[in-house]
Amino acid sequence: MAAFVIRRLLGMVLVLFAVSVLVFLIFTVIPNGDPAYRMAGKNVTPQVVEQIRKEWGFDQNLFVQYTTTMKKLFSGNLISYENRVNVVEEIIRGLPRTFALAIGAALIWFVVGVAVGLFTAVRAGRWPDRVVTVIALVGISMPVFWLGALASYYLGYKANIFPNGGYAEIADEGFLSWLHHLLLPWLVLATLFIGVYSRVVRSSMLDTINEDYVRTARAKGLSERRVLIRHVLRNSLIPVVTLWGLDFGAILGGGAILTETVFDLQGIGQYFAESIKRLDVPPVMAVTMFGAFFIVAFNTFVDIVYALLDPRIRLE
Amino acid sequence: MSELESTRIGGVPPGDRARASSRGADPSRSGTDVLLDVRNVKVDFNTENGVVHAVDDVSFSLAPGEVLAVVGESGSGKSVTAMTLMGLTRSPNAVFGGSARLHDLDLISASGNELRRVRGKEIAMIFQDPMTSLNPVHRIGKQIVEQIQAHEDVSDEQAMRRAVQVLERVGIPRAQERAASYPHEFSGGMRQRVMIAMAMACDPAILIADEPTTALDVTIQAQILEEMRALRERSETAIILVTHDLGVVADIADRIAVMYAGRIVEMGTLDEIFYDPQHPYTWGLLGSIARIDRDRPGRLPSIPGMPPSLINRPQGCHFRPRCRHEFEACPRYPELESRLGEAPGHHDRCWLSAEEKRTRRVVGEGERDRARSRRCGGVTALLEVAHVKQHFPVRRGVFNRVSGHVHAVDDVSFSLGRGETLGLVGESGCGKTTLSRTIMRLLEPTDGTIELEGRDISHARSRELRPLRKDVQMVFQDPFASLNPRKRIVQIVGAPLMHHGVPRQEIGRRTNELLTRVGLSPEHANRFPHEFSGGQRQRIGIARALALSPKLIVLDEPVSALDVSIQAQVVNLLEDIQEELGVAYLFVAHDLSVVRHVSDRIAVMYLGRVMELSPSEELYSKPIHPYTAALLSAIPVPDPRANRDRRRVVVGGEPPSPIDPPSGCVFRTRCPRARELCRNEVPRLSEYPGGHVAACHFPLNVSEVEVGCAGKSPLSTRDSGNTAPALVEDDEMPLDTGALA
C-alpha cells in the first residue's frame, strides 16, 4: 500500500511535468501567439513591443522562459499577461465556487444515479425500466449549455424562481442565498451524469444478479431486499465508485467549464475558458496543472478505494 | 459405513404396491417415514424459441438421513429440479406444476415469504463452484452470521460464536481467526467446507448438494465426501446429491434417480441401479465411464447421438432416438413404475419386459476385439524434454523488485515416442498446463531443453517456431471458449492451412475432409460455433488441430467439459485418429480414469515436479510413489461393492504454495510415509522393475532389494539429488502419519 502510493506520487510528478511542457509548447507555436504584441495593444511602435519583450523575458530562449514561469507559478508570483493580476490568487478566489459546484453536483448525481439504476435494474425489461431508460437517454443527450441556458432563462429570468446566474458568498449573503444560487447549476450539471450513472449501475447490477453468490444469498433465506442491497448493490457499486471518483476529480479540477460559464459562477473553469480566449498563457498553464493534479490524485485515490471495496484487489 | 446405510435404507418395506396406485408418488416407500414428498413436478420455461420442458413429471420422496443421488447429463433437468425445490428457478418465464411437500408446506406453490422461511432453515443448498458461490466482499464469518440471523433472533456475538463452531465442525483449522478472512483467502476445498458450514448453520433437515465436488481435485473431493458422510451420521440430515459422477454416487448414495431429458427414467437403490439397471439409458451411462479399476476395453462404449432438444422432445420415450432396443411400444409415453416383481422399489420408464432387459443388457462391454497393444517407449523419440524449469517472478515494492519465484515447473524430464500417448496428470496447480504450454513453446522455458525430432526448440524465436507449429498442435479444454464465435467453421478449421500457404481451393477441399474425419458433415462448414453442441465443438477443435498433419497434439483436458456419453465418443475418435495417422498425444488431464484409458505411459506431477512416470497398467496396478497411490485411492469407482472393499488412503491437507515449495521432497508435507530424509534430500528419479520411474525415498510396492539396486533414471542425466539447505525453521505442517487409513 505504502509502496503503491509512493509509486503513484512519483508518477504524478512526471505527469505534471509532461503536461506543463506540452501546454507551454502549444502556446508558443500557435499563430498570433506572441504575447508582447497583444500586450502592447493597437498602433504601437516596434520599440514598445521590444521593450515589453525584454521586460517580460520573451526574448529569452524557451527553456529559460519555461523555468521562470514554473518558478513563479510554484512561488505564487505568476502574473497573467492580459490583465496583469496574480494567477494563483485568481485560482484561489475561484476555488470555493468550483468546489461548491462540484461537490454538490457530484453528490446529487451519485445518489440519484444509483437510486435510478437500482430501480431500473429491479424492474429490468418491464415498462418502468423502459420509461426511465428513455428519460435517462434524453438526459444524456441534453448538452449542458443548452439545458443550462433554458433553465436559467425560464426558471431564472422568466419565472424568477432562481437567481439569473451568479454566485453568492455564504459570508456575505448567507447560506440560503448561496444554496439558492447553486441549486440550478447543481441540477443541470448532475442531469448529464445521472443519465450515465443510472445506466452503468443498472447494467452492473444485472451482471451481478446472475452471480453464483447472489444465488447463495437467496438460498440462505435472506429477504429479497437484503439480497439486493448487501449482495447485489454492494458488489455492483465497485465499478461505479471508481467512475465517480474520476469524474469528480475532473470537475473539481475545473472541468465544469460549460456549467460555470452558463451560470456565471466565476469559478476556475470559467476563468480557464476566458484565459484561453485571450491566449493568456500563465493562467492556462496554472489551471491545466491544477486540473491535472486533481485528475491524477483522484486516480490514485480511486485505486485505493477500489482496494478497500474489493478485498481481492491488492495494491502493489 | 455406506454399506451400513444402504442396507438400512435399502430395506424397503415389502408392500403390495399395485402399479396403478403408485403412479406419481414415489412408490418405493410408504408414507410414514417421508420427509419430502415430491409429486409430478413439472417446470417449463417460456423462451423466444418455444417452451423448454426442463423438468417433467418428476416424483420422489426422501427419508430423514437418506442420500438420494440425482444423476444425469447436462440438460437432463437434475439441477433445475434441485433449484426448483429451493424456489431458485422462479422467474416470470417459468411455469410450475406438481407439488413438493415438506412438513405442511408445498414448496412449489408456497409464497415467496413462506419459501424464504424454509430456505436455509429447513432446506439448505451447496453449489458446484465454491470459488464463485461466496460473496467476495464479505468476511466468511459474517456470511454465516447472516445465514443464522435470517432465521433466528440471536445477537451478533451469539451468531458469530455459532459460526465459528460450524466452521470448526467442518474442519477449518483456526476457525476463530479464519472467520475474519475473505473467501479469496481460502482454497477451493476450504471454500466448499465453508459452504457446507454455512448450509448446516441452521441445522436443516435437507441438504441439496448440486455437483458439490465437480470443481475440486480428487484428493479434496475425497475430503469433502468424507465431510458429507460425517454430517449425515451426525445430524440425520437427508441429502439430495445432484451429480453426473457415478463414482461419487457409488461412494455415498443410498438411492439413485437417473434423469434424462427432464424425466426420471429409472429409480432404485444403489445396488439395484449399479447391478441390475433396467433402462437402456442407464446401461449406456454406466458403460460409458472410463474406469480406473479396470483394464481398458479397446473402445469406450458410447451412447450414439445427442440428448434431445427440450423444446421438441421425441414423442413417447424420450430416449427412443438413441436407443438400440426401440420397438413398436416406444412411441407411447412409458410411466415410471415397477416392472420387476421381486424389487418393488425399483422403477423405470422402459417398455421392454424384465426378461428382455436382462437378455439385451450390455453394460461396459467394449468391442474388445479392437483392443490395441500399448506402445511403450522404445520407438524413436519425437519429443525430448530435459530438466525443464518454468519459473515466474513475483514482484513487490516501489520498484517492482522480484521478491520470489513461482516454481510452476521444476526440473521435468521425459521423452515421448512417435505415435505414443503420454498422460500428464496431477491436481490443479501442479504445473501440468504450464508444462504443456512450455512444450508448445507458448512460453519460453526458464531452464532446460526441449527437443523436437532432435532439434532444440527451447529458445527458438517466433520466426523459427512458425514452421514447427505445423508439427505440434493443441486441443483446448473448453470447446465453448476456444472457438471464435464470429468465424465460420470453414474459417476456423482452414485457418492453419491458410497461414501455412495452402491455396484457397485446396483449403475448402481439405476442410471437408477434416470435418468428415472427425465425424461431422461437410455441410456444417458454413455454420458458426454456437450452432454446435459441446461434443461437436470439440470435434471442430480436433479437426483444426489435425489440419496441418501434426506429429504431436497436446490435448489439454480435451474431454473434461463434456458429458460422459459424449466423452466416450470424443475419446474413441482421438484413438481412431491416432491409429490411422500415427500422431503422438500428450494428454493432459486431472481425470485419472480417462487418462488410464488413452495413455501408454503416464506422468504424475505434483507441485511442478514429476513424481512418477510409468507404463499405464503398471501405474494403476502397482503405484510406486505414495502420491500416485493417494491419487488413485481418492477416486471413487463407479462400483458400490468394490468401493466398500477398497482400502482408501485419504491424504489430508492441500498442496503447499509453489512460491515457497517444501525442502527435499515436495510431497513430504502430505505424505504418510515421510521421514527425516525426505525433508533433507530431494529424491531423484529412479528406475524400478516394470518400467516404473519414480522420485521417492520410500517407494511403495517395491522390495528392499529392488530399492537397493534401483538404477538412476536415464531421464535425470544431471544429478537432481542436490541437498536442500539444512533444516530451515520448522514452519512446515506436521507430518500426518495417521492419515493412512
Number of DSSP strand runs of chain B = 25
**CATH homologous superfamily designation of the largest domain in chain A:** MetI-like
Give the N-terminus to C-terminus distance of chain A in angstroms. 7 Å
What fraction strand of chain A?
under 5%
Structural class computed from helices and strand pairing of chain A: mainly alpha
CATH topology of the largest domain in chain A: MetI-like fold
Q: Characterize the overall form of chain A.
A: globular
Structural class by secondary-structure content of chain B: alpha/beta
State the share of residues found in helices of chain A, binned by percent.
over 70%
CATH architecture of the largest domain in chain A: Orthogonal Bundle
The major β-sheet of chain A equals: none
Q: Please tell me the total number of domains of chain A.
A: 2
* Rg calculated over all Cα atoms of chain A: 24 Å
User: Number of helical segments of chain B?
Assistant: 24
